[in-house]
Amino acid sequence: MSRFGPLPDPAELLDHDEAADAFAAILDGTASDEAITEFLIALAERGETMVEIAAAAQAMRDRMIPIDAPAGAIDVCGTGGDGHHTLNVSTAVAIVVAACEVPVAKHGNRAASSKSGAADTLEALGLDMERAAQMAEAQLADLGICFLFAAHHHPAMKHIMPIRRAIGRRTIFNLMGPLANPARVTRQLVGIARPAYVPVYAEALHRLGTDHSRVISGDEGLDELSLAGGNEVAIVTRGNVRMQRSVAADAGLPTHPISAIRGGDARENARALRSLLQGERNAYRDAVLYNAAEALIVAGAVENRIDGVEEAAEAIDKGLANALLNCWIAYK
C-alpha cells in the first residue's frame, strides 16, 4: 500500500484481485476523495491495463441496479473524453438504430469532460430524465429504446461524479461506463478516445464476456468512427478479438473534417440532432450513418456497412427515427 491509504500504488501494474479491491474501496466510499483523485490521475497517466479495466467494470456491474431487456438488445456508447466536443453521435445513432427495429438500451450520463453528454442533449430535446429512469424497462419493451441514466443505475457513482468533474480529464471511469450497461447487453458498439487502446479495451470486453461487440476509435482520437481519416476497429466475439481498419469509403460515404461535426452546449446539440432526424443532409448525418451501420452489423441486422448505411438512411428519410423520438419524449 502507498500514501493513497486503502488504495494500491498505481505506479505498479495491478493484478485482478488488487484492482478489484481498489475499485471496491472507491465505489463503496471507503477511500478519501484525495486518494481517489490521485489514484485515478496516476492510473490514467501510466495507462490502464486490460486486467484493471475488466476488474473495475466488474466492480461497477456488481453494484448496479439492472433492468431486463429484450433478446438482441444492444448499446451504442462512447467513452467520452476525446476533447473534440462533437455533436452527440452515439445518441443519434441509438435513435436511428432503434427505428430500424433493433432494441437499444442506451447507457449514458451527463457531461463530465465535454460540453454536452447524452443525458444533457436528450433532456434538451424534451426527455424527462426522472421518468426515463423510472420507466426504462417499460420504454425498452414498448418502444425499443430507453436511456439508462448512469446516475440512477449506478448509485455507487454518486460520490465519484464531483471528483471526475474536478479532475476534468479522462479517467478509467470513462472506460468503465460502456462495460457496465444495466441491461446486461451482450452486443455493443463502443467508441473509445484512444486508437492505440482499442485492442487493450477489446481484450477487457472479451474477458468480461460478449456475443458480438465492436470497439472503435478514430485516428484523431475520436470516440466513434471518424469520417476524417482511418479508424481502428476491434471485432470482439466469444471466440476471439480481431482487428481491422475502416474508412468512410467502406460505407460509401464521403470524408469530412472533424470540425464539420463540432457541437456546442446541450441546446445547440439538441437542435442539430432534431434537424438530422428531420432529414437535414450534412456531415453530421454522414457520421451518424457510418456509426449506425456499424451498430446494425453488431446487432446482426445487416451484413456490411453499405447495407447498414442504406437501412439507417431509410429510417431517417421515412421519418421513423423522428417519430420514435417524439413517442419516446411523450411516453407516460
Task: Describe what this molecule looks like in 3D.
Belongs to the anthranilate phosphoribosyltransferase family. Pathway: Amino-acid biosynthesis; L-tryptophan biosynthesis; L-tryptophan from chorismate: step 2/5. Homodimer. It is an enzyme of class 2 (transferase). InterPro entries: Anthranilate_Pribosyl_Tfrase, Glycosyl_Trfase_fam3, Glycosyl_Trfase_fam3_N_dom, Glycosyl_Trfase_fam3_N_dom_sf, Nuc_phospho_transferase. The protein contains 15 helices and seven strands. Helix 3 crosses helix 11, helix 4 packs across helix 13 and helix 5 crosses helix 12. The longest helix has 17 residues. It has 332 residues and is an alpha/beta fold. 46% of the residues lie in helices and 12% in strands. A hairpin with a 3-residue loop joins strand 6 and strand 7. The strands form two sheets. The chain has a five-stranded mixed sheet with strand order 1-4-5-6-7, with helices on both faces. A two-stranded parallel sheet has the order 2-3. The model has no long low-confidence stretch (mean pLDDT 93).
Low-pLDDT runs: none
- Average pLDDT over all residues: 93
Give me the secondary-structure category.
alpha/beta
Please compute the radius of gyration using only Cα atoms.
Answer: 19 Å
Please count the helical segments. 15
**Cα-to-Cα separation, first versus last residue:** 51 Å
Strand content: 5-15%
Number of strands: 7
Report the helical percentage.
40-55%
Task: Give the topology string: H per helix, E per strand.
Answer: HHHEHEHHHEHHHEHEEEHHHH
Identify the strand order in the major beta sheet: 1-4-5-6-7
The biggest beta sheet, please? 5 strands, mixed
EC number: 2.4.2.18
Subunit structure: Homodimer.
Cofactor: Mg(2+)
Binding site for Mg(2+) 1: 90, 224
